[in-house]
Amino acid sequence: MALATIMENRSGQQLDPAEVAVTFREHSLATRKRTRHFILMVEVEGQHRLRVLPGVAEVEALLLKVRPNRNYKWTPEWDEAVRLVDKVGRRCLGVTLAETRWTPACRKHGWTNEDDWEDEFHAWIPNAIGTVQTAAKYEFSELGWDVSSDVGGELLCAELFYRLLVCVAKGMAGHEPGAELSDEARKVEAEKWAADLVSSWERGE
Predict the structure, then answer these.
(1) Domain residues for 103?
(2) Which 8-state DSSP code applies to residue 60?
(3) CA-based, 20 to 30 A from 116: which of 11, 47, 136, 189?
(4) Beta carbons within 8 Å of 83's beta carbon, 6+ residues apart
(5) What are phi and psi of 175, to 5 degrees?
(6) Do 140 and 158 meet the contact criterion of CB atoms below 8 Å apart?
(7) Where does residue 138 fall: left (phi above 0), alpha (psi -120 to 50 degrees), or beta otherwise?
(8) Contact (Cβ atoms closer than 8 angstroms) between residue 46 and residue 144
(9) Global confidence as pTM
(10) C-alpha angle 76/62/199, rounded to 5°?
């Protein structure tokens, strides 16, 4: 079943699958057993989905395995997850974790020192008396990214991608996912992804 068809059935209008993000959530386990019915949720247009980038699922699986360990950041799985993040970053975003650090070459683009550069990774927000204060991190949605998992909640690996996403969103390094693809190629990828997702849900996977 094509993505556009599913969306037309739910919303009454046909939307371009290359321009929307779609996730499926079970209405409830009981409802699934009775009717195998799922709610189709169309996410905010323009939001990239971290979970569908090639390799992100493997990073998430590694973190799911070690997060019960209090010292999970000192495990081989954590080290492997970081290496995979670099592979995903290079392949999909054109930037690695090491390349999110300031170097003297950044001066020609306006970041004169490391402090200026690192300020870009913090959100500035107004406080109650009208001045601004710095927040530790942006909300991912402010960067144009949906980092939810396919079962709800935030991906455990989202924090590992944070610096990469800031660099891409603010034009500091890298590029948006799919920037190297034509519009037609992106549309084909979106339709294939949606068809595979629907098929897996219908099989109960």
Answers:
(1) 3-202
(2) H
(3) 47
(4) none
(5) -150, 165
(6) yes
(7) beta
(8) yes
(9) 0.65
(10) 160
